[in-house]
Design brief:
It contains no helices and seven strands. The protein has a single domain, classed as Immunoglobulin-like. The termini are far apart. β4 and β5 form a beta hairpin.
Length: 97
């Protein structure tokens, strides 16, 4: 598991975050599946939506929006590859006005 850096955004913002796996993948290897989860659950939640891989299937993007002011969330991304590898990456998202 790799813990990337922490990010901050306001509850009203919707921002896309991009994760480039190209340096980790073999030249012919691509992202096969990807999931995104957010912890802790809150009301209103920090929402991860629109996760997708780029046309080369080596870069994953996800849009984050919402959440509760003054709350830090863990955003957990798990990808599997065409060669059968599984990788988990976490980021911390601080929601603050």
């Amino acid at each position: 598991m790799t813990v990337h850096r922490a990010f901050m955004q306001a509850p009203i913002e919707a921002k896309r975050y991009v994760f480039d796996y190209s340096c980790w993948l073999a030249p012919s290897e691509t992202l096969a599946t990807y999931t995104v989860a957010v912890s802790p659950p809150t009301t209103p939640p920090l929402i991860a939506k629109g996760a997708y891989a780029d046309p080369t299937k080596k870069i994953m993007s996800v849009m984050l929006t919402g959440g509760i002011n003054k709350t830090t969330y863990k955003v957990i991304m798990v990808v599997t590859t065409s060669d059968g590898q599984t990788k988990r990456d976490d980021i911390h998202m601080r929601v603050a006005s």
